[in-house]
Amino acid sequence: MKQGKLIIFSAPSGAGKTTIVKHLLGKFPSLSFSISATTRELRGQEQHGKDYYFISKEDFLHRVALHEFVEFEEVYNGTFYGTLRSEIERIWNAGRHVIFDIDVEGGLRLKRKYEQDALAIFVQPPSLEVLKERLSGRGTDSAEKLAERFAKAEKELGYADKFDVTLKNYDLETACAEAEKLVGDFLVS
Description:
Blueprint: E1 6-10, H1 17-27, E2 31-33, E3 37-38, E4 53-54, H2 57-65, E5 69-76, E6 79-84, H3 85-93, E7 97-102, H4 104-114, E8 118-124, H5 128-138, H6 143-157, E9 165-168, H7 172-188
């Protein structure tokens, strides 16, 4: 198995990392999206094996015990997310580089594990207020879940300086162009 590179996009929920990652997947054919595993329920049009691997908490914890995850975390109370080792290997075996849309702490764990083979990018929203508006506007979470997301977002904004690069997403078109340059330069380095 030839090891490729890893491009890690992390940010608080609502900062725009998913939109930027989808943009990059359309620009770089050598990238493949790493599908995370989670114990949360499907939302809206999500599909198992495309958006996430939706698994039970029991199965998730069993896989943790078998060391099948390269990183995992209880992101919200009782809800786990993680990256399966087999997912990275699947992408590398196809001769591609891995791109992640992952929570902040998971992104930092991946960077520590893969060091120079990984580029860790923190997507900075314009402000906490804008982030709150975006999350509230989704209409997918209860008031209690939104409060939990807001508290987590505030904490995560303090981690920006631990990443290789902070990408300011004040204007999506500009942020996507800057992300293209960062990723393009890293892939040829």
